[in-house]
């Protein structure tokens, strides 16, 4: 999962200018996407866990909006 998440992050960073303020959101979104594609069952990461890992600096809505944006762009 980490290598796939890094691949997504690298692809997004090559296409879009991302501010330093949004790097943590991008990393969480890429990790979430990679876990869903790798483990589509209940073993995939839940958004609440990623929000906890970021010390509540992102919201579930931020994560979902970012996910839609990345999926559209990739």
Plain-language structure description:
This protein is mostly helical and 74 residues long. 69% of the residues lie in helices and 0% in strands. It contains four helices and no strands. α2 (23-38) crosses α4.
First-residue to last-residue Cα separation: 17 Å
The average pLDDT value, as a whole number, equals 90
> Which percent bin holds the helix content?
55-70%
Number of helices: 4
Ranges where pLDDT stays below 50 over 5 or more residues in a row are none
Strand content: under 5%
Question: In angstroms, what is the radius of gyration?
Answer: 11 Å
Which of globular, elongated, flat, extended, rod-shaped describes the shape?
A: globular
Order of helices and strands: HHHH
Structural class: mainly alpha
Largest sheet: none
Please report the total strand number as a whole number. 0
What features would you highlight for this structure?
74 residues, 0% strand, mainly alpha, globular, 4 helices
């Amino acid at each position: 999962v980490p290598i796939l998440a890094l691949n997504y992050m690298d692809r997004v960073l090559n296409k879009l200018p991302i501010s330093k303020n949004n790097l943590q959101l991008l990393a969480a979104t890429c990790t979430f996407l990679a876990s869903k594609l790798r483990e589509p069952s209940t073993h995939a990461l839940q958004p609440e866990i990623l929000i906890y890992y970021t010390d509540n600096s992102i919201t579930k809505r931020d994560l979902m909006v970012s996910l839609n944006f990345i999926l559209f762009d990739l």
